Protein 1
Amino acid sequence: MLPQIPRPAVLMPVGAAGSGKSTFARAFPPSWILSADSLRGQIADDPGDQAASQDAWTALHLLLGYRLRRARSAVVDATNTGVADRRALLDIADQHGVPAVAVTMPATREQCHRRNRIRPAARRVPASVLDRQFDLAAVSHQALLDEGFSAVHCAADLPVLRHVLQRAAASGREHGAPDVRAAFGDDLAAFLTWEPDSGPGDWYGALAIGGESLAIRQVEREYDFGFEAGVRCWQPLCPAPAWTPVRDAADLLAAYDGLPTDDITCDACDT
């Protein structure tokens, strides 16, 4: 668990469609996640069916109460941009004596629109609706505290990536596996995106959550490991990208912490 978040707690990401709320939510155990979209899908076979929203929210409120009654944390994966929507969730948290924590998303309006455009049609939000969500989400941290949240954090300020790396490292995935899911686990694979113009040869991407990221590349040379993570060069003043082999999630965690377990190769110093 993140040290900044009490346990149990109700975590409420606040942000427009495409701001990274669901990515943030996936950093936590699946049993914690209460998703309005998923519940619409379970109720109406379509996560984007807004006609099912009232039933989905009724179910979400019930499930939230059941978890809090058992002193279990929950992450409410929804835009949470409306004061009334937040109030209903805060009331449930208050009824069970569980603190509620708001987490604001750092994505820009342009980033939200770009991500929204590449979503499946059923989950795409009209641009005007997204703009309204973005404007509503631009609420100050003090205003959220005044609503009754015990704490407010920006996702970019939480060490969520380290949390996910620690959890994956503890799972004991296969050492040195050639496939990203086999090597690092489904949890980490869900946060990995590859650059569209990568290849042939090395493929470049990043593990990214909130405002944190860890550069990754897949190397295909016979004498190298399958994956490398971006680290600081062994020359203190060198600004060039440097890389260290990573065979599993524990190696990724070490690279994130600046304590790589293997040799470092710099794109400038070692050419």
Note: The chain has two domains: 10-158, 174-266.
Protein 2
Amino acid sequence: MHIPSRLHHHFIRASHCRDIFLAPAILLIGEIVNIKQGTQAARELPASRKKTGRMVLKRRLMAGLALLLLAVAGACWWVWERNGAYGFNVLWRRGGSYWVNVETDDPRLSPAMRLALTVPVPPATSGPMTWQEREKGFEVAELPVMAGGREVDRILLARIDPAQYRFVVRNAPDGEKGIDEWERALPQALLIVNGSFFGLKGLPDTPFISEGTVMGPRRYKARSGAFVADNNGAGVRDLRDVTGTGSRRSMGRAMRWSPIPS
């Protein structure tokens, strides 16, 4: 078929134009594809970083928790070694205690204590009191403490006939008993009084005898008296006259405070 040269020329130009216009279209499509692939890669990169960050955070939290548990276990071991069950009960019941230095005029001290710490210590005398009988053979009174012409403190007293009442000595070394628990444990008790001195594990630091069982230190230099109750009555006895564990056990019930004069 013969194509006129003029038409042939236009066909070639059209073909060239088609090629010219098609090439940018192909490049544009390629660029669009590349942009989409780059966007997908950009999306995948932060996701992987987030996953890695979460893993690092989780590991740090686990390490912190492990260190916390280790610290708690160490603290529990220290309390057990130092105070035994008594230490845990003290923390659970009262939250523990600590000592702070105070001045002699610190307002946190009672007025009587501040007065007793003054130099020189003012002379103190007893005020008037009256015994009141609550039960037969059991009387109570409040003794005013006078200093500088005024009452600065008050002492609660009890007077008991040992012929009508029995004295009992008890110890709760685990520290699980306060005054309320002792009242429930001893419902027949007419009077409950805290006594003696106790060590870090709740055991008595002074001679202590409960129903013939000797507690407290094995060796103790007796230089004062102790409250002793047995079948013959009750009273303060000079510990210098008591020698040997057997003699002390024969007392039945005894408790030593400090200081008690012999």
Note: Residues 1-33 have pLDDT under 50 and may be disordered.
